[in-house]
Amino acid sequence: MSAPMTPEQYSHIRAHLSQAALKYGGIDYVSPTFGLVRDAMAEVDRLRARVDEVERAYTYDTAALKKRADELDKTLGEVMAERDGMHDALDQFALTVAPEDVIGEHSSGNNPWANALELLTPMAEVDRLRAELAALPAPVVETAFRDALGNVWPLNHFPAETEAQVLKTTPTIQRTVRISEWTEVAS
Question: pLDDT tens digits for 69-78?
Answer without folding.
Answer: 999 999 999 9
